[in-house]
Amino acid sequence: MSDVIALHFDVDGEDFTRAGEASYGVKRTLKQLGINPEAVRKVAIALFEGEINMVIHADGGVIDIEIDNNQIKMILKDKGPGIPDIEKAMQEGFSTASDDVRSLGFGAGMGLPNMKKYTDSMEIQTELGVGTTVTMVVNL
Amino acid sequence: MTVKDIISILDADLISGEDLDREIHTACGSDMMSDVLAFVKDQSVLLTGLVNPQVVRTADMMDMVCIVFVRGKEPGEDIIELAQERNIVLIKTGYRMFTACGLLYENGLRGGCQKK
Fold first, then answer.
1. pLDDT tens-digit profile of A92-109?
2. B36 exposure class (CB count in 10 Å sphere: 0-12, 13-18, 19+)
3. How many independent structural domains does chain A possess?
């Protein structure tokens, strides 16, 4: 594979039970491309957590994926409320999710820590009232 | 241990899925999906009391083979369809979480991750 492969997904913020469809699409594409299973799983988990976050906190957003020979780059962009304190948000167990979300098995405060754990780099750009962009890279 | 063995040990009912001879290496019991996502294991079974489509999506992201719903919980049609599409076997047992995990552990299945 010599070219960059780009994928784009719109994440619907309306329906939490459908959150994860974009991650599924990406995972399937990576498998079809013959990317090694370990990298596929890392991308799938990090992206799934990110997608869930977008739906829980930001009413959806857009996901762009760029795949080349060396890396898989994931850019998750939302127009949500922004993250007031990134350091706090990165702590395991810290969450601002609603009880509704918790009753569905999420909101344990493990989303961002898991995303960092499974990727080789993660960068968060956020502005209160404007939105958040999370850029993650998994090296191949 | 295979999916078939798990059905027998847990006195469980098969809800959907066909490939019951698939080998299971490790297990994870949790109602918190982010905890499930925190530890990568190989060819796992997920035991959970949670019944919603995100359980199937979580298991799929982890390449899990089988989901056991404990306490006799019944997944809806939407969950069953999603599991079939993702090739994940669904079973249910009347045992509660602690007992179901204990029975599988007693029969040699392990968690597959180190103490944190």
1. 999 999 998 898 899 889
2. buried
3. 1
Rounded to a whole number of angstroms, the CA Rg of chain B reads 12
Which structure tokens are listed for A90? 């990165």
Q: Is residue B112 part of a domain?
A: no
Q: At what angle do helices A21-32 and B53-61 cross, to 10 degrees?
A: 30
d(CA B105, CA B84): 27
User: What are the CA-CA distances from residue B15 to residues A110, B39, B72, B86 (Å)?
Assistant: 30, 26, 11, 15
Among chain A residues, the shortest Cα distance to B79 is held by A17
Q: What is the ipTM of this complex?
A: 0.88
Give the B window 50-79 contacts with A, CB below 8 Å.
Answer: 50, 52-55, 57-58, 60-63, 78
Query: Which of A21, A52, A102, A116 best probes binding to B when mutated, by most B CB atoms within 10 angstroms?
Result: A52
- Give the domain CATH number at A59: 3.30.565.10
